[in-house]
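Sequence only, no structure available. Ideas?
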Amino acid sequence: MTIGFQSYTALQWLMLFYIYCFFGWCFESAYVSLCQHRFVNRGFVRLPLLPIYGSGALCILLFCLPYRGNYPLVFVLGVIFPTILEYIVGWSMERLFKMTYWDYSRKKYNLHGYICLSSSIAWGVLSVLLIHLIHPPIERLIGHIPTLIAWVVVIPVSIVFAADFIMAFRSAFNLRRVLEDLEHLRTQLDETRVQLELARAEARDQLEALQARADMLHGNMQNRIRSLNRQYFTRALLRAHPTAASRVFAEPLRVARERALNFRRTVEESIEKKR
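Reply:
I predicted one. Tokens follow.
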């Protein structure tokens, strides 16, 4: 029994969706696992189902099945409509989750990284193969499955798939929140590091300014002391009153007295050497 395009029931469309989701998962996981040299469970959900392939297959069936036998038209339609679907899904997922789950940005002739020419051509080839080779036996198979058995299979699969899909959405949103928090913390860390460098630069400038001022003040003190040493009567006054004190100028008086005494010793040592 061959089912015509117009005679598919909602139950049969749902069965076709799950069948092609599974076929897509087999193909994608096998391909990526071979490339990665390890098993990779591809897909948005954890079940062995890839919704994008199931949706793409239904899109191909909807638009291409009426033109079965017209290979060029099937190819062209298979390029156009699944490509549109892939772009919409990729754009929507990035807006929802702030992530691209596939990226064609490194391929030639891509559009925003969601679609590219080679992927679109692959969709066209897949459409021809699906309509004329893959789908006919599947079409006959689901046509012979009793409705009761189909419901017994589809209902549990739908329940598990729906639960898995909800969990996948929650996990994707949770990942988005984590990534947003990490990005916020990274931005704060970068700003703090910049502020830290500015503070260090300001501290270096302040340190250099303070060091320059200290050197200047020390030089002024030395000049003032040398000026004091050139004043004979002032030195004599300091030597004549070795116990003189000042509550206001205690430290300057001590320094001046020491320098005055040192000056006298220096002169005496110089005279002694000349002898």
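The CA atoms of residues 212 and 218 lie 10 Å apart.
Hope that gets you unstuck.
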